[in-house]
Amino acid sequence: MSDHILEMRRITKTFPGVAALQDVSLAVARGEIHAICGENGAGKSTLMKVLSGVYPAGSYQGEILLDGKPVDFRGIRDSEEHGIVIIHQELALVPYLSIAENIFLGNERRGRSGLIDWNRTNADAAELLASVGLHENPVTPVVQLGVGKQQLVEIAKALSKKVRLLILDEPTAALNDVDSAHLLNLMRRLRDQGITCIIISHKLNEITSIADSTTVLRDGRTVERLDMRSGAVTQDRIIRGMVGRDLDSFYPDRDCTPGEEVLRIEDWTVRHPTQDRLVVDGANLDVRAGEVVGIAGLMGAGRTELAMSVFGRSYGRDITGRLYMHGRQVRARSVAEAISNGIAYATEDRKRFGLNLIDNIRSNVSSAGLRRLARFGWVHDNEETRVAEASRRDMNIKAPTVLSVVGKLSGGNQQKVVLSKWLFTDPDVLILDEPTRGIDVGAKFEIYTIINRLVAAGKAVIIISSELPELLGMCDRIYTLSAGRITGVVPVGEATQEKLMELMAKDKEPAR
Amino acid sequence: MTSTKPSSGAQTKPAENAPAAALHVGTSDPRTLILNNLRQSGIFVALVVIVALFAFLTDGLSLSPGNITNIVLQYSYILVLAIGMVIVIIGGHIDLSVGSVVALTGAVSAVVVIRQGQPWWVGVLAAVAVGLAVGAWHGFWVAYVGIPAFIVTLAGMLLFRGLTLRVLDNISLSPFPAEYNKIAAGFLNGLMGGAGYDAFTLLIGAIAVAGYVVSCFRTRVARIRYQQPVESFALFVARMALVGAVVMWFAWQLANARGLPIVLIILAALVLVYGLLTRRTVFGRQVYAIGGNLSAAMLSGVKVKTVNFWIFVNMGFLSAVAGIIFSSRSNGAQPAAGNMFELDAIAAAFIGGAAVTGGVGTVVGAMVGGLIMAVMSNGMQLMGVDQSLQSVVKGLVLLVAVAFDVYNKRRAGATR
């Protein structure tokens, strides 16, 4: 027997009607980085909730051994006392408290009088920050930090709790490449200091580069445990385990036959809503019917800002430039005008900006095109149901009925609801901002297939993505954006990741 | 009108089903139905329990014809306010000013009719105009300036109470002429005669039941045509019979007292119109969208500012209606009129299942919530319970009702 810090044996957890985990076993060796892979809904988060005590002992079957001894966690506090800390995808920091206050929240450094010893708090915090490589003053409010730095604060907070087993749930989902690389390096450093890490990630390239071993889950069961140290395990190998089959072509094939120009912007310039700087500077871009155009850029390059400003000026101020639809100049000063001009924009953050999570599929699908279902302001609700049912069928949205609440669906199905909603407005051009962020491999493939179907039907599609392979796999042409300026447009045949990266990093000083 | 939600077992039937066969689509399993509808039916069950409790405690006095008429007359203006309030709350706002607006609109009406001797309908129009203006004022600050409604209407509460005092010169005005007084204290009776009871009231009750059944049946047929799951035919008949029986019993009690109160007609019309407005119009649906997720609504092309503006204009209008009813019922205008009405209206909306965070709630729910409060207050008054204790009980009921709702939602595992 090798030295396992953690063993979870035959864990079974059922919710009313569904078995989320069945006989799942997980063994993590001391001092390794252990990755957990699986499609959304495979049971990764449930397993981590069992481990961290969110689901207390007794609400599941099976046993957890820590250092070879069985443990029963009744809550998160319990597991933290044993040195297990979980950092969730949605960070749990209080924005207007300082870094130091956040690190010691619930675990305050007190002096003899029982009052908080601020000198010790800040000094200890500074030490922890240094150990995670974050050079910030501990009294800085967290709200002033970017997501990458906030992630480091979370890790510093975990270190302050004498963590032995650190669990990171999708730590790099919202990070740019530089921050991601920094975080992965930090994980290696922590491992060398003897802290065991579990990482849950959809980014398989990260897993192959960092993990010592990988456990693959599928449909609530353990599929396999892969030893990654040899370097022989490829991304394709992991995908095969996750989906239970080979994805011979990850990006479905499509013939490119571009037609008439649909949308063109000229000299598009957008100012930041509160600060005095340009976030988009003189951009020119066009997309034709039956064509998929990509926009690549690092975080902060202005991709989303460009898209949203085109979409009815929903971002920024002092927007200047010309917008043409089908060669005719149009105004789209509000979202409603943009929609009626045939523009649709599916946001990168579907939970915050794309969906009404407390309402059902039917209302969400109709919400952008409700007027199509109405006469004199009266909604034809049976017709609405029919439309929603049709979307559920065409898009393969997995839900019992169209009256299911959207908040309960998985990420991939939520994204399909977002697409249904925009397709119902019958747009000529669809701008998809990070269309596959946070959704599993199988659903990604479905989304790609849907995009290809739309393009085949003569729609124009613009994809904004942080994943270059996705752009290379899906697009016909790729624009690169750097600091608000278009730095190049590359036909996909000539594009490589290296070439795009070079253009994305060009002219790095901020725009005027 | 509310069709039973489909259970997971009751999937759509294939298209080749003849409509006659499809009349029986759905589930009749009472357990499934109750579980599926706990959230909606819970409130009705609570109302029935409370009505039964007070009928028992008062030896049936609370269900006597005279008392039923009284409940309608006494609480109608709260119910009118609750209609507007639930829409405000669904939109994610709150309105603390409605009590003051009730006072102001009543005062303006009294000044026009009593002091200046104008006909009664001029007073009504003046009150409505003031209500709309107040609503537009609130709507402007909330929608276009972007001040939270809590602040805007808290300011409005002080502002319009002060204006009421100025309009009335700090004194009460009364009495109104008989025509104005009839709005809230009047009855439609004797139009068709009847031996000891009012036949007209029964006829109106019967028409209401018939209208309800026809509309439900048409909804049902349409749903079947669109292959949507519906409740089983037997259950449908049972539901219609139950609603019919309750309404006809209610009409019979009214007919045996003083006939059909005019305010009840106003209230019924408002409930019908606003029930449809919230569920079936683009405006209503956009209110839910805004309350559910403001950013998503904005990025779906909803003109958020316009919708918010009209939500408050509508609240102003309904406050004016309540102000007219209240001044008519109290047969005058007092500087302190409408004090704390906002809290009763807000309580009605929340007991009726509206969510503090917006996006959830129904007009019918708010009406039932208001009735629960009304039946309780009335019952305790009949029993001679001390005012202080009444307040304690009402407070606890509000708390328990919302706690029950939160518990239900958590059990349903709704939103994260």
TrEMBL record, chain A:
The ABC transporter domain sits at 6-244, 263-508
Known PROSITE patterns for this protein?
Answer: ABC_TRANSPORTER_1 (PS00211), ABC_TRANSPORTER_2 (PS50893)
Its localization reads: Cell membrane
A GO molecular function held by the record: ATP hydrolysis activity
Please report the record's description of how this protein sits within the membrane. Peripheral membrane protein
State the UniProt keywords alphabetically: ATP-binding, Cell membrane, Membrane, Nucleotide-binding, Repeat, Sugar transport, Translocase, Transport
Q: Does the keyword Membrane apply?
A: yes
**GO cellular component labels:** plasma membrane
Indicate whether Nucleotide-binding appears among the record's keywords. yes
Provide the primary localization: membrane
Q: Which Pfam families match?
A: ABC_tran
Q: Which CDD domains match?
A: ABC_Carb_Monos_I, ABC_Carb_Monos_II
Q: What is this protein called?
A: Xylose ABC transporter ATP-binding protein
Automatic annotation (TrEMBL), chain B:
Q: Which Pfam families does the entry mention?
A: BPD_transp_2 (PF02653)
User: What residue ranges are annotated as transmembrane?
Assistant: 41-59, 71-90, 96-114, 121-141, 147-168, 203-221, 233-252, 258-277, 307-326, 346-376
Q: Where is this region: Disordered?
A: 1-21
The GO terms this record gives for MF are: transmembrane transporter activity
Keyword check for Cell membrane: yes
Compositional bias (Polar residues): 1-11
Q: Where is the signal peptide?
A: none
Give the record's GO CC terms.
plasma membrane
Domain of life where this protein originates: Bacteria
InterPro entries the UniProt entry points to: ABC_transp_permease
Q: Topology versus the membrane, per the UniProt entry?
A: Multi-pass membrane protein
Query: What is the annotated localization of this protein?
Result: Cell membrane
- Which key words are in the record? Cell inner membrane, Cell membrane, Membrane, Sugar transport, Transmembrane, Transmembrane helix, Transport
NCBIfam families xref list: GguB
Protein role: Part of the binding-protein-dependent transport system for D-xylose. Probably responsible for the translocation of the substrate across the membrane.
What's this protein's name? Answer: Xylose transport system permease protein XylH
Species this protein is from: Micromonospora sonchi
Query: Which taxonomic lineage is given here?
Result: Bacteria, Bacillati, Actinomycetota, Actinomycetes, Micromonosporales
